[in-house]
Amino acid sequence: MTGSSTVRVAIVGAGAIADFHARAYKALAPRFRLAAVFDTDLHKARAFAKAHGVGRVCETLKEIVQIEDVELVDLCTPPFLHVRQAAEVLAGGRHVLCEKPIAGSLRDIDTLGELERRAQRRLFPIFQYRFDPQVRKTLALRDAGLLGNHRLSTVENFWFRDDSYFRPSGRGSWRHDLGGTLASHAIHAHDILCAVVGMPKRVFARAASIREGHETEDLAAATFVFGDGSLATSAANLDSKLEQTRFCFVFERVSIEGVVDMTRWEQPPWRFVAADSSDQDAIAEIIAAANTKREQFEAQFDALHDCLTHGHPAPVTLEDARRSVELLTAMYYSADHATEVELPLGADHAYYDGWRAEPENAGGETRND
Questions:
Q1: What is the mean pLDDT of the chain?
Q2: Sign (positive/negative) of CA torsion 179, 185, 188, 190?
Q3: What is the pTM of this model?
Q4: Which among 67, 121, 115, 120 has a CA at the least distance from the CA of 97?
Q5: Cα 51 from Cα 344, distance rounded (Å)
Q6: Which among 169, 257, 260, 295 is least surrounded, fewest beta carbons within 10 Å?
Q7: CA quadruple 67, 307, 103, 101: dihedral positive or negative?
């Protein structure tokens, strides 16, 4: 980093998710400044620059990387481009922020980890729902040691995506998205599950596609067994008008229930119920003191700024992304082979090179939708 406390950001991809990112950066000004944008659709890039006050529109990723005062490149591009683009940015000496999933294989994640070490730059994944205020309260209780042993958790990822969502080129295909609802939507809920409970030791999953003409799954269900013998279940689909993710965590000392409502920004409060009523005051005190000033993208980017300028721990790490990809690998293998999968997965696993082994840049560059 330079001596400046303002982190200069270039955004790659000018689609809907980039708009959310840009709003968060602007809300955090002057901690961040949007310096440049690149999209293969120059009309879209120029419109994005005008809407968000971005001073420079670039015509290639190489041009972005060569801008001297850009310190962070934010990849808001289709998943199949992430590995190649992240590698190019790291090699150019810039930090990378990348939307999910970063990669479609453990091999690619491990390669990026080596590139990160070699470049002495950081690759930060996006998991903004981990920074939902209610999730942060749950993590604060975990960190305070008030939860006790885990018993059972359920995750229900009931989202809705109609045909208009899939119209952009390539969506709904393995090559473009690297996966369906597990890789693109439930990935957030599973990240929260693992952040709260830990990584499971055994996984069994089923997946199906009921939309005609779509390759990737839009229905999935899974069971997880943790090292202590406790359990979790997950259900995900893209055909629910509820538009919510629901969690229920049952721990030895506290039971927690709540919803992340996808149709509203301000989330309804969760229930935190102590097994012993004498613990309720301590629970209330900890959740009241939890840092919930900012939410989701703003909260993650705020912590990222402290990491880059003051050396604070990264809010989300490449190891977190690897854990996410490892869980995806296990679920896809289980669904394909109707078998339980044990974790962790080694380099000798049949899906170490990916659950759908195609060249990462098959078909060349596509639009950054």
A1: 92
A2: negative
A3: 0.92
A4: 121
A5: 45
A6: 169
A7: negative
Say what the pLDDT of residue 302 is. Answer: 97
pLDDT digits (tens, 9 = 90+) for 326-368: 999 999 999 999 999 999 999 999 999 999 854 343 333 333 4
Mean pLDDT along residues 310-330: 97
* CA dist., res. 220 & res. 222, Å (int): 7
Instruction: Tell me, yes or no, whether 53 and 195 share the same domain.
Output: no
pLDDT at 266: 65
Residue closest to 131 by CA, chosen among 320, 322, 14, 296: 296
Place of tokens 């690998």: 329
Where residue 102 sits, what CATH number does that domain have? 3.40.50.720
SS3 336: helix
Query: Which own/partner contact pairs does 349-356 have at CB distance under 8 Å and 24+ positions apart?
Result: 349/106, 351/105, 351/106, 352/105, 352/106, 352/107, 353/105, 353/107, 354/104, 354/105, 354/107, 354/108, 354/329, 355/104, 355/105, 355/179, 355/328, 355/329, 356/104, 356/174, 356/175, 356/178, 356/179
Does 105 share its domain with 207?
A: no
What integer pLDDT is reported at residue 171 of this predicted model?
Answer: 84
- Nearest Cα neighbor of 54 from 66, 27, 67, 36 is 36
* Averaged pLDDT for residues 231-241: 95
Around Cβ 5, how many Cβ atoms within 10 Å? 12
Total number of domains in the chain: 2
Same domain (yes/no): 37, 53: yes
15: domain range?
7-128+306-316
**What are the structure tokens assigned to 176, written together?**
């473009």
Half-sphere exposure of 87 (CA within 13 A, CB side): 14
Q: From 262, 266, 260, select the one nearest 248 (Cα to Cα).
A: 260
Tell how far CA 39 is from the center of its chain. 21
- Name residues whose C-beta falls within 8 Å of residue 195's C-beta, 6 or more positions apart in sequence: 130, 135, 139
Between CA 34 and CA 45 the distance in angstroms is 13
Q: Is the peptide bond before 344 cis (omega within 30 degrees of 0)?
A: yes
**Interval 54-100: pLDDT, tens:** 999 999 999 999 999 999 999 999 999 999 999 999 999 999 999 99
